[in-house]
Design a protein that fits this description.
17 helices; mainly alpha
């Protein structure tokens, strides 16, 4: 009854956006549940392998139709124009279902984990309660069946400590989203919507650092809210972010950013391709495959592919030169220099993630790396500048290890933490920015 209740509530939540796409979740769930049962029954036989590959094709097929069909048609039309101008394939203009990339990967990991030896869900409702779990359904984190199915088998009532942790995560998540991200969004949107009118180097570095903080506050804020709600429900989700902008290398950045997705590509793409077990050259090729697929997962645009390729290039360069190790040896400043270089590389790559097209990305990069003395609209963007400063201070606190001090984990000090969280919650009400949809809803 509990699994059925969770599934129905999650369906109502998702169907509130568009009830028609509930059938898509049901199709995805039914296909993977049946595949899992067949794999478990015929384990080690050809039928199990066939079922696994059919499930992979089915999952990627659903994702391909709704997310990449129009992108493919547009690129085919571009090629046709080279040879036969005027002959074009019609665009389908399909609506992209919210969260399809997330629940498709969850369903796919379920089938692949069963093929690797995991026992399947006890019944269909058990599986659907995992797949449609509403807090993370539309924007992650990407859950693993091996982690959630055992939790769903127990009826765990959250302890007071877990309720407190959930409250803290929800409040901080809303602060990241409605105060930090939503106050930075108008500044970033203004700059990119009028990119041709701005060429100042300082301006564009300010814009891109603002976007870096905006997307972090936006996405990690959603993840925090989802994790907090899960704690109140008696479940524990993976921590999806861990202060990625204090990373000392690109590799560490991906160990801290969108952890559920980066570990997904590591476990289901990079390692199955051979990881680093087949020599250095092959490990670079495997890593490039994983990063390119990660970029393409984010959206049907060449900008996302370039973003993934740029991160792959930075990671390869890091492996070959071992610059974090060499730079880290600088007395006193080594770690800080590594963080600064990593932040510059990540921010540079964010240009392709945010830009509307390739020419705009090139214009922004040229402005960032070729000095132009342009104006900086501080007076009209004072809230954005203030939030950029607040967000920077938060990350500086993480860099200094302030949040790891025992005082933040001690129950006896909650009488100090509670007023602080209350102040943060009030700031979410009175200092919130104009409402913006979560950035990762589009993926």
């Amino acid at each position: 009854m509990r699994w059925g209740y969770l599934s129905i509530c999650s369906f109502v939540f998702y169907g509130w956006w568009d009830w028609r796409f509930l059938f898509l979740i049901m199709i995805s769930g039914g296909m993977n549940y049946v595949a899992g049962e067949v794999i478990d029954r015929f384990r080690g036989r050809r039928a199990a392998s066939l079922s696994m590959w059919l499930a992979v094709a089915g999952n990627l097929g659903l994702l391909g139709v709704f997310k990449y069909l129009d992108f493919s048609i547009a690129n085919i039309n571009a090629l046709i124009d080279w040879f036969s101008p005027g002959s074009r394939l019609p665009m389908q203009n399909l609506i992209l279902p919210v969260g399809i990339s997330f629940y498709t990967f969850q369903a796919l990991s379920y089938t692949l984990d069963i093929y690797r030896g995991m026992k399947p869900a006890r019944n269909f409702l058990h599986f659907m309660a995992f797949l449609s779990m509403f807090p993370q359904l539309v924007a992650g984190p990407v859950l693993r069946a091996s982690d959630m199915l055992p939790q769903l088998e127990e009826c765990h009532s959250p302890t007071p400590d877990e309720q407190w942790d959930g409250f803290r995560q929800i409040v901080l998540g809303y602060f990241k989203k409605v105060v930090i991200a939503d106050n930075l969004a108008p500044f970033v949107d203004m700059a990119f919507s009028n990119s041709g009118n701005f060429s100042g180097t300082i301006l564009w570095w300010g814009v891109m650092l603002s976007f870096a903080l905006q997307i972090y506050g936006d996405f990690s804020g959603y993840s925090d809210i989802a994790c907090g709600i899960a704690r109140w429900m008696g479940y524990k989700f993976i921590n999806n972010f861990n202060h990625p902008y204090i990373a000392c290398s690109l590799r560490e950045f991906w160990e801290r950013w969108h952890i559920s997705l980066s570990t997904f590509f590591r476990d289901y793409v990079y390692i199955p391709l051979g990881g680093n077990r087949k020599g250095k050259l092959r490990s670079h090729v495997n890593m490039w495959c994983a990063m390119l697929l990660s970029g393409f997962w984010h959206g049907a645009s060449w900008n996302f592919v370039i973003w993934g390729a740029l991160h792959a290039f930075f990671l390869s360069l890091e492996r070959v030169t071992r610059w974090p190790l060499l730079l880290g040896r600088v007395p006193r400043l080594g770690r800080l220099l590594c963080v600064a270089v990593s932040l510059v590389l990540v921010t540079t790559a964010w240009v392709f993630f945010r830009a509307e097209d390739l020419p705009q990305a090139i214009h922004v990069l040229k402005a960032m790396f070729v000095w132009h003395a342009g104006g900086f609209p501080v007076a009209s963007q004072i809230r954005a500048v203030a939030c950029l400063g607040v967000g920077t201070l938060i990350e500086v606190g993480a860099y200094l290890g302030i949040y790891a001090l025992p005082v933040w984990k001690s129950r006896s000090w909650r009488w100090i933490q509670l007023p602080l969280l209350a102040a943060v919650l009030l700031s979410c009400v009175f200092l919130r920015g104009s409402g913006h949809a979560f950035i990762y809803f589009q993926f």
